[in-house]
Amino acid sequence: MSLADLPSLRETLERHGLWAKKAFGQHFLLDLNVTRKIARLAGVGAGDHVIEVGPGPGGLTRALLETGARVTAVEKDERFRPLLDELCAASPDLNVIFADALKVDETALAAGAPAHLISNLPYNVGTPLLIKWLTGPWTPASLTLMFQREVADRITQAPGEDAYGRLGVIVQATCSAERVMDVPARAFTPPPKVDSAVVRLKPLPERPSPERLEALQTITAAAFGQRRKMLRSSLKVLGGEALVEAAGLDPHDRAEVVPVAGFLALADAWIARR
Ligand code: SAM
User: Fold this and answer.
1) Closest-lying ligand 1 atom to the alpha carbon of residue 27
2) Model pTM greater than 0.90?
3) Which atom of ligand 1 is closest in space to residue 104's alpha carbon?
4) Is the CB of 52 inside a 6 Å radius of any atom of ligand 1?
5) Residue ranges of domains in the chain
6) CA 237 / ligand 1 centre spacing (Å)
7) pLDDT (tens digit, 9 = 90+) per residue, 240-251?
8) Residue 243: CB partners within 8 Å, gap ≥ 6?
9) Is the pLDDT of residue 134 over 90?
């Protein structure tokens, strides 16, 4: 059977007696128009390698395979093995690995060539996965990821906006970030409590060194841990007013107005003082 001859996703789920499990953050996209749009926004095609986290019933996987890309999918829920075996039989370009995406070595999966990360992420591990991909040893060619709308806002908002915080600083220090599609809760089966959005991230050519990224994580944890306090107070244990001045910033500013470049300067000043 080829991809085009596969039965609908709903039929396939029913035939395998599968239902969504809350513990795995499962909210499925069963409308191929939606998954095809995500694949289009990801901009992948023949010759590209995609790593997809959480294929589940395989709706997004089908859309990605239709572009001609080669897909390595990582799924934690073993219940999907028979269903995904059928999808593998329909496409020579799909390889499925049953593992926890938090623990897989993407460098080994990518085998030394560029790979694009695309996923309708499980809500419960979306943020830790993103931090792993942005600060770990492997750099994706691009990331096209579905998050809860509130997390998408935290990723893309600028200083002074409500959702700007630690996650946005780490993302924007390493990538260009754009919210490219809003997806209402009703598009999922079962519908989650909140709406979602797809963000597209492109790693910057000049990625901060691992040492700078580690320092950035420490600085942002302290600064946004007490986001209403002035930097000279929230960063007291890391160097306080002297550290903030060494970074060329105003010690009276609060974390929520400091731009990403300011946090990188703080990370550099902290490294220099260690
Ligand atoms: N891609 C499918 C879709 O769009 O319909 C399913 C998306 S569902 C939101 C998240 C998927 O991630 C589920 O299949 C779930 O089993 C899987 N998952 C959850 N935690 C995971 C983990 N730590 N590693 C790999 N897959 C995981």
Assistant:
1) 9
2) yes
3) 24
4) no
5) 3-203, 210-273
6) 40
7) 999 999 999 999
8) 235, 266, 269, 270, 273
9) yes
Pocket probe mutation, ligand 1, options 78, 120, 144, max atoms within 8 Å of Cβ: 120
Rounded CA-CA distance 227/236 in Å is 13
**In angstroms, what is the span from residue 252 Cα to ligand 1's centroid?**
43
Top mutation candidate among 74, 75, 127, 133 for ligand 1, by most atoms within 8 Å of CB: 75
Please state whether 117 falls in left (phi above 0), alpha (psi between -120 and 50) or beta: beta
End-to-end Cα spacing for the chain:
61
Q: Which of 256, 253, 260, 216 is nearest to 238 (CA)?
A: 216
Q: Does the structural domain 3-203 have CATH classification 3.40.50.150? A: yes
Q: Which residue type, as a one-letter code, is found at position 162?
A: D
Ligand 1 centroid to residue 56 C-alpha, Å: 6
For domain 210-273, the CATH superfamily is rRNA adenine dimethylase, C-terminal domain (1.10.8.100)
54, with CB counted inside 10 A (0-12, 13-18, 19+), is: buried
